[in-house]
Amino acid sequence: MNKILNLIFIFVFGFFINLSLQNDSEAIVCVTNADGAIQLTAAGVAGTQEKSDGELAPFQYPNGIVDDEFNSNFADQCNAEPLFYKMKVYKVALCKEDPYVASGLGSPRFESCIYLLNNPDGKIVTIVKGQDENDLLDGAELVIPTGEYPYFAMVLSNHLHVKHKQDYVNNDGTTGAKMWGNGDNTDAQRKTCYTTAVVTTITGDWAGDATYQNAHLDLDGNAVTIVDSGQDGNSRLKCVNDNSETDYDFATEIIDSFGNEVGDDHTADIDNWINYQSKADLYQGVTTDISTAGTFMAANLLQNNNASLATSFVNAQRIAMYLNYTTNPPKISENTVGIKLNIGTTMGISLDSAQVVVGAVVRTWMAKVGVDPFTVVVQVQNRDRRGARGRWR
To answer: Checking phi first, is residue 289 left (phi over 0); if not, alpha (psi -120 to 50) or beta?
Structure first.
């Protein structure tokens, strides 16, 4: 066995797989200006641009990219890199055999896994854009047997939290856009929209449902309050033209199903599994620093024992993520001195709009934010041949 010191959680810019958008769609980054502001098209500013389903869509994907769901280059939702991404992690493990049971036919099998973290109470991890070197183990030592680990597993709360503000510009790339957020009732330039402390669900259900809300607890252990999202008073971002974001805070999305919404039946079967799919195939309009070639991802929804498959929207309280590295799987040797977990945040948030035209006024409502689970690329730090300090290979 080889002792691994100071396991480091280092976050770099990369792609977040989309498990959470409606109808199993996959959001894509939109056209932005040089400063990263999302740019409306000319037709989007005018309120005349539609997706193939007839819904107004003020944005556009770059380079002619067409989404899989609506077969359209026009978009009403865009991915972005959140300024803050917070999650509660229960298990992190390297595995010699596949812990995932295909198609939701069984609970995960962690027998071959070596835990880097196994905390029944969970550990809160906050990813801050542009910062790294978060110590997952708080300086504790870790022993990992030598060998090859082609599988990686993580179990985390399905309550995902982002804190973000996003600029928007018109089609000229410079003029601030007239965005609409919660509390707005007049037409004006509002170029910056930001998150507030609200809780939504991926299915869009459960607002005011006591059974659901009492089962899903926030980070302080209190029952959550679910709100609807959409236009008018249900718009969940706020939009300003200055720096008056006095209630700027974390928004929470609960990922309680991987499929379509099915209504408010507590006992309804949920889609609690996603079979392995290629991560490299999902890079659309994104430049990343870490390659995921040969990386495949699967997922389950689990109950709060961190082990059993979820059977309802109420007891779906964890996400189990599994990665299979078919190219260059992590290998622990006698020369290993550290492990680096590269997690990207480039696609960590989906900014969803609901545009309507009232008379001659175009209202581009910022309806909600969707929070997307992620992938991990594992890098092993080995000591060089001269026995000097480790370096990343």
So the answer is: alpha
Q: Which DSSP letter does residue 375 get?
A: -
Share of the chain above pLDDT 70, in %: 83
Q: For the chain, how many structural domains are there in total?
A: 1
Q: Would you say 254 and 199 are in contact if contact means Cβ atoms under 8 Å apart?
A: yes
Query: DSSP 3-state assignment of 234?
Result: helix
Global pTM? 0.87
With contact defined as beta carbons under 8 Å apart, do 331 and 148 qualify?
Answer: yes
**What is the β-pairing status of strands 179-180 and 361-371?**
parallel
Structural domain including 314 reads 2-392
Residue with tokens 């865009």: 78
**Residues in Cβ contact with 180 at an 8 Å cutoff, skipping those fewer than 6 apart:** 190, 231, 235, 239, 363, 364, 365, 366
Task: Return the structure tokens found at 194.
Answer: 């930001």
Q: Which CB contacts under 8 angstroms, 24+ apart, belong to 134-137?
A: 134/8, 134/9, 134/10, 134/11, 135/6, 135/7, 135/8, 135/9, 136/7, 136/8, 136/9, 136/89, 136/92, 136/341, 137/6, 137/7
Q: Which residues contact 242 (CB under 8 A, 6 or more apart)?
A: none
The secondary structure of residue 153, as a DSSP letter, is E
pLDDT for 324: 96
Q: Could you tell me the two tokens for 303?
A: 């109950």
Question: Which positions ≥6 away from 50 have C-beta within 8 Å?
Answer: 56, 57, 74
Total residues belonging to the chain: 393
The reported pLDDT for the residue numbered 287 is 53
Question: 180 with 366: CB under 8 angstroms?
Answer: yes
The helix (H) or strand (E) run that includes residue 43 is helix 42-46
